[in-house]
Amino acid sequence: MIVMKFDAGSISSEDRLRAVARLVQQNLGRKPVVVTSALPKVTDLLLQAARDACARSGEYEDRLQELRQEHEKIACGLVPDGPGRRRLIGHLGALVDEVRTFYTAVYALEELTPRTLDAVAAVGERLSCELAVAALVQLGLRAQAVDARTVLITDDAFCAAAPLMEETEKRTRLHLRPMLDTGVVPVLGGFMGATREGVTTTLGRGGADGTAAILGAALGAEEIQIWTEESGMTTVDPRLAAGAKVIPQVSPDEAAELAYFGTKVLHPVMIQPAVDRGIPVRILNTQDPAAAGTRVSPAENLGPSGPCAVVHRGGITVLLVSQPRMLMASGFLARVFEVFERHHTPIDLIATSEVSVSVTVDDVEHLPAIKAELAQLGEVRILRDMAIVALIGRGFFHCAGLARRIFDALADVNVVMISFAASDVNISVVVEEPDAERAVHALHREFFSETRT
Ligand code: ASP
Ligand code: MG
Question: For the chain, does the N or the C end have fewer beta carbons within 10 angstroms?
Fold first, then answer.
């Protein structure tokens, strides 16, 4: 069986939902389980309305009207006038009324807890799930809504709940297996679950991908498909350079590196349950369904090693601490890192020499205090407006000549710092921000005139 998860953009209108239904129909032979996100901006709207209610603003009522109208409009576009449409509109209306009772309570109590936020936020996916079922049924498929809260069981870390896999596996076998075996397509709203006691939880923002991964893992899926409006991960940001190519396959580590540099198609933490079981996750484009997309597969199943993308991240600050007396001394680095730790400031890259250490940070909130403390350990220099430019890939240890190609490509760019760590998937250089684009172009030209497969 497979899991087909559709993001907000791919279900944003009746036409899109019909296209989604056709995609599911084409995959009936592979026994699909369908997972939906909420419609675009709906989760934001629901959460904002809760905050309005808590601040004693009656504006939440307007937002509820907006929510109802948007879903009703799509329902009417999907289902012809008659008892079917009336039933669907009744369901949607009941959900809107349910969330209104939450808002009324929040308003009266002026209290908004993480637990309440989850009950509110889950309504977005509960609504979209009904619309997806309607689209499938209109196409003649046997599809049925399944309340995700009866199968996806989590701990009670509201707003960032973690699945209890054993219980979830038991429930998916019980509820979803029989449906799949009799040719019924189960449709679940993503993002939400419930505790063993039945209290609604969510997996955190972007959590609908998590639902797909958890259900896929629980059912031993052959593949998890994440349908988006993008063609997958690309060798370079297409807004930055012409000639960006879709990367056919990446390892989970490569996907995580790409996410750090802002590739937003997939949240690597969310797909961990699939990664743990070696189930491939494929990013596909609803606007171009025949394209192969990007597949995230266990590293051992992947082909040749080599670079997969050139990425960059600006707004980086470099701190250089030098201390000639550090020569042959021990404990210096520990003291330097301890300063960052005390100020809760994560370090991204590190490079050291015998008498100095350079680090990069993203978060400069505590920079003045950090600088003052580091000044007691040695001479401190701060370089602002820097950018990290990185070559991401896998098996770099075995790519002879890689460093030469990088340095040749960057021959006329000033490099401030270099980092290549044992993770084997990332070679980073730090350059001045105005040079970053040029560096990205040069590296992309060097490495991606032809693609890895
Ligand atoms: N609707 C939720 C969100 O906006 C979950 C998701 O779409 O992945 O965060
Ligand atoms: Mg998403």
Answer: C
Chain center to CA of 299: 20
pLDDT the model gives residue 259 = 87
Question: Number of C-alpha atoms within 13 angstroms, CB side, residue 170?
Answer: 7
Q: Is 3 in the pocket of ligand 1 (CB under 6 A)?
A: no
Residue type, 3: V
Angle at 163 between CA 161 and CA 168, to 5 degrees: 140
pLDDT, tens digit, for every residue of 343-386?
Answer: 999 999 999 888 899 999 999 999 999 999 999 999 999 999 99
Cα 30 to Cα 334: distance, rounded to the nearest angstrom: 54
Least Cα distance to 215 among 151, 281, 270, 158 occurs for 151
Query: What percent of the chain lies above the pLDDT cut of 70?
Result: 98
DSSP secondary structure string for all residues of 53-109 = HHTT-TTHHHHHHHHHHHHHHHHHHHS-TTHHHHHHHHHHHHHHHHHHHHHHHHHHH
**How far is it, in rounded angstroms, from Cα 316 to Cα 273?**
32
Report the alpha-carbon distance of residue 173 to residue 244 in Å, rounded: 42
Nearest atom in ligand 1 to 207's CA: 8
Q: In the predicted model, what is the mean pLDDT of residues 90-98?
A: 98
Check if the beta carbon of residue 35 is closer than 8 Å to that of residue 188: yes
Chain position carrying tokens 């070696």: 278
Between the CA of 205 and the centroid of ligand 1 the distance, in Å, is 5
Nearest alpha carbon to residue 403 among 428, 386, 431: 428
Is residue 189 lining ligand 1, measured as CB closer than 6 Å? Answer: no
End-to-end CA distance of the chain: 26
Query: Which alpha helices (H) appear in 305-390, and where do they start and end?
Result: 332-342, 367-374
Atom 5 in ligand 1: residue holding the nearest Cα: 206
Bridge partners (DSSP) of residue 294 are 283
Percent of the chain whose pLDDT exceeds 90 = 85
pLDDT of residue 42 exceeding 50: yes
Cβ contact 29:222 at 8 Å: no
Whether pTM exceeds 0.85? yes
**Res 453 pLDDT > 50:** no
